[in-house]
Design goal:
- The chain is of the alpha+beta class.
- It is 51% helix and 17% strand.
- It has helices at 34-55, 68-77, 84-92, 94-107; strands at residues 11-19, 22-30.
- It has a two-stranded antiparallel sheet with strand order 1-2.
- β1 and β2 form a beta hairpin.
- It starts with 10 loop residues before the first strand and ends with a helix.
């Protein structure tokens, strides 16, 4: 399973430090299994960027991570899983996975 990090098996530490009119946010996610680091990094980068926009008063817009295909692209680029074809087939079914792979080959 792609997101098989058991509950309470990791530790997330967040510190907020005033910096003039701004605030520095430091986040450390510890005790992750090596195979889970890339996927979690992509997730934290995604959601911290959205948090920064919201905190500055901007609208972060629609969360693109509600689009599964985009999600898989980001995770694959981060090296979150080594056999994306198997993951796509298991999650999307063989027909849709084959269509996505055909489209991807055109652009790679």
């Amino acid at each position: 399973m792609l997101f098989a990090t058991p509950p309470q098996s990791t530790l997330v530490e967040v510190s907020l430090t005033p910096d003039g009119a701004d605030t520095i946010v430091r986040l450390a996610h510890r005790r992750l299994k090596p195979g889970a680091v890339a996927g979690h990094r992509v997730g934290w980068d995604h959601y911290l960027a959205r948090l920064a926009l919201a905190a500055s008063g901007e609208d972060p817009g629609i969360d693109t991570w509600t689009d599964f295909d985009r999600n898989v692209e980001d995770l694959r680029a981060a090296g979150a899983f080594r056999a994306p074809e198997l993951l796509l087939i298991s999650l999307l079914g063989a027909r849709r996975a084959a269509r996505l792979q055909t489209v991807a080959r055109r652009f790679l």
